[in-house]
Design brief:
It is a single chain. 47% of the residues lie in helices and 15% in strands. With 75 residues, it is α+β, with helices and mostly antiparallel strands. The chain has one domain (3-74). A three-stranded antiparallel beta sheet has the order 1-2-3, with no helix packed on it. A hairpin with a 4-residue loop joins β1 and β2. The N and C termini lie far apart (31 Å). InterPro entries: Znf_BED, Znf_C2H2_sf.
C-alpha cells in the first residue's frame, strides 16, 4: 500500500478522499495515487518530502535535492 494513505482517508466507497493535512475533499481516480501525491507536493511540501523519503528509503538531504531538480524541470 502506498505511503500516501498515511495522509489521506478514503471517503464514500473510495471515490473521494480527505486530506488529513487540510481536510480537503478530493476525487480519487481509482487506485492511482499520482493526483494525491501532486496535492501534497504543491500544497504540503514538507509532508511530501517526508513521504518521498519513506517511498524511496532515503534519509537526509538527498530527498530534498531530488525535489529541487523536479521543480526546476517544471519551469
Amino acid at each position: 500500500m502506498s505511503e500516501v494513505w498515511q495522509v489521506f482517508t478514503k471517503h464514500e466507497n473510495g471515490i473521494k478522499v480527505i486530506c488529513k493535512e487540510c481536510s480537503g475533499l478530493y476525487i480519487n481516480s481509482g487506485s492511482n495515487t499520482t493526483n494525491l501525491l501532486n496535492h501534497l507536493k504543491f500544497k504540503h511540501k514538507k509532508k511530501y518530502i517526508e513521504l518521498d523519503r519513506l517511498r524511496r528509503g532515503v534519509s537526509g538531504p538527498e530527498a530534498a535535492d531530488h525535489l529541487e531538480v523536479a521543480d526546476n524541470d517544471a519551469e
